[in-house]
Amino acid sequence: MSAQLRLYNTATREVADFKPLVANKVGIYLCGATVQAAPHIGHIRSGLNFDILRRWLTATGYDVTFIRNVTDIDDKILHKAVHEEIPWWAVAAKYERAFSDAYKALNVLPPTYEPRATGHMTQMVELMQRLIDNGSAYAPGNGDVYLEVRKLKSYLTLSNQKLDDLQSAEDADLTYKKDPRDFALWKAAKPGDPSWPTPWGAGRPGWHLECSAMAHAYLGESFDVHGGGLDLIFPHHENEIAQSQSAGWSFANIWMHNAWVTASGEKMSKSLGNSLQVHEILKKVRGIELRWYLGGAHYRSMLEFSFDALEESSVNFRRIEGFLKRATDLLGATPEGIISAGFTEAMNEDLAVPTALAVISEILKSGNTALAANDLDEVKRAASEIRGALSILGCDPFDPIFATDSSSSAETLDGLISLALEQRQAARARKDFAASDAIRDQLAALGVVIEDTASGTRWSIS
RNA sequence: GGUCGGAUGGCCGAGAGGCGAGGCUCAGGACUGCAAAUCCUGCCACACGGGUUCAAAUCCCGUUCCGACCUCCA
Q1: Which label site among A202, A283, A324, A391 has the fewest CB atoms less than 10 Å from its CB?
Q2: Distance A94 CA to B74 C1' (A)
Q3: What's the CA A312/C1' B26 distance, rounded, in angstroms?
Q4: Which runs of E-coded beta strand occur in A12-156?
């Protein structure tokens, strides 16, 4: 059972064996950012959770094509452009950059392809043409194009809702829509708005069209996994399904949704302020620690954010890091990463990261014990298994992306501290503990922490 | 109104019929000149009320509270 990856599918509401459509290959489409504001930790959690999925699939031998789009044209971006008094495309570029920086800081791998909505207008127009031609969509003549949802019997099966149970929007305008629940594939241009030409008039895409068009462009009519946050199930993913299946494409095989980061029990939103933006939190903890925290909860569980919990998680991580550092010193080489059976079993069960962390804790314990006993084989095994696990979680401290800058002053620093440690050692040798402790305290005041071990004194910067 | 989650020890956070997840904190012990690091021991929890069962945190019924979505959302 441990050899078979099982994943939860929102569409069936159960965990089932993962069977790729094509042997040894996986196509994943993740709804990425609508680039209208700087990312908060909830946005980044989504990218992170799917990054772990992708790394796990890759590590277990799949050839993964991972698409994460950028939606760079939508209502909010236009509003923001007015507010910030810069062009809409400058808004999109600015926040796309902010997202890229955040992904990089948290070691979220770049997707195989990262398509932008504005780069796929042709594909969107083609899709609409197809939908109009087969009677699924209609253009009422005002420049809008709508999808007629009643024509698709499978509409709302992902969210398990009934069309007639939906509360219809109070401001639904039936001037052009046949049904208030029909949604806009395309919106007619308003004066001053950016627009692209179509056979039905100039305009811009509605929110959902771009994902169907881009998923089709890069992954074809059917693909393995479509992901996103829980809040995208309805309407975004339902509408993607509606468009794509109306076009005759079978679309995604498995739907995966990550849960939110909450604050005080509530879903994060802009009303909670900017303090939980990724770049703000990175002023307090390292990227690798933020990642360890955000990735540590199961992807389908809400993660209640607090700085206390973040700090606690960082303490735990530093312990693991400390072991790897000591093991590396003892072994005289960086351990290679290997994947242990326990870790595999946990990850294969719907990416049970919390269980995987328990596995890491056990390996850590035996590794530390082996370190004390100078059992090199066991130290090497433990360090390798831990490094292997950390690399899947994207938290490998030896990953160059997390490397602290090793400037030329590092050697000088090392020399200076060694000098102080030699003085301390001399004091200890003559049992002048007042002097030796004074040196230790002074170093501690500078942030240099000392540990006396059987093989000498180690130091690190806290 | 419809749909979907959740409530677990001081705190975080898994599990989903039996044999104490794990982490953090705290207390004690080992090691140490003292620290630090590490290891060991301790802290036997599952919102409430019924029920099923040899056995329920887990299944069933009911209740309370919290949250999410219903065309802006990761």
Answers
A1: A283
A2: 19
A3: 14
A4: 14-17, 25-30, 63-68, 137-138, 145-147
Specify the CATH number for A306-402; select among 3.30.300, 1.25.40, 1.20.120, 1.10.10. 1.20.120
ipTM for the predicted complex comes to 0.93
Whether A356 sits with its Cβ under 7 A from any strand B atom: the answer reads: no
Name the closest nucleotide to A259, judged by C1' and CA.
B74
Structure tokens at A343: 């870790």
Please give the Cα distance from A435 to A69 (Å, whole number): 61
Divide the 462 residues of chain A into consecutive groups of 10 and give the mean pLDDT of each group.
Answer: 82 91 97 93 94 97 97 92 93 96 96 97 96 94 92 89 76 79 92 92 93 97 95 93 95 94 77 76 93 95 91 94 93 94 95 96 95 93 97 96 74 88 92 92 88 84 76
* Cβ-contact A144, A198 below 8 angstroms: no
Q: What gap in Å lies between CA A226 and CA A220, rounded to an integer? A: 13
Which residues, in sequence order, are CB contacts of A206 under 8 Å at separation 6+?
A183, A184, A185, A186, A187
Give the fold, CATH level 3, of A6-272: Rossmann fold (3.40.50)
